[in-house]
Amino acid sequence: QVQLVESGGGLVQAGGSLRLSCAASGRTFSTYTMGWFRQALGKEREFVAAISWTGSTYYTDSVKGRFTISRGNAKNTVDLQMNSLKPEDTAVYYCAADRRSLMTTTPDYWGQGTQVTVSS
User: Fold this and answer.
1) Average pLDDT over all residues of the chain
2) Using CA of residue 9, residue 105, residue 42, residue 87, what is the dihedral sign?
3) Which of 12, 48, 50, 80 could form a disulfide with 20 if both were Cys (CB 3.0 to 4.6 A apart)?
4) Residues 6, 112: contact at Cβ < 8 Å?
5) CA-to-CA distance for 28 and 34, rounded, in angstroms?
6) Residue 20 pLDDT exceeds 80
7) Strand pairing partners for 26?
8) Tens-place pLDDT, residues 48-96
9) Percent of the chain scoring above 90 in pLDDT
10) In 3-state terms, what secondary structure has residue 58?
11) First to last CA, the chain
């Protein structure tokens, strides 16, 4: 059993930056793929970024060049640095962990979500 807790969400103006963090606890494995999804109001949850245990990173096209996913300074953590934020980035961001070597559409574990609001 793994628990994921997100932090770092908040309100920021367009063009600004936020850094989200996800802390994992419980029975974790370093080989898990970690990543982020987001869900805007009235929309389906979508994939944002992921990082494999080998360090390979993956991003959805809309955030490439603006977001950077990385493993945190502490063990069992993953961060999402979000730069040049746009109002379209407004959503609840969910941390996810997948026991597979890549992030699937059905991750094994989910965080509770953290709100990111980008104002114009």
Assistant:
1) 94
2) positive
3) 80
4) yes
5) 11
6) yes
7) 2
8) 999 998 999 999 999 999 999 999 877 789 999 999 999 999 999 999 9
9) 87
10) strand
11) 40
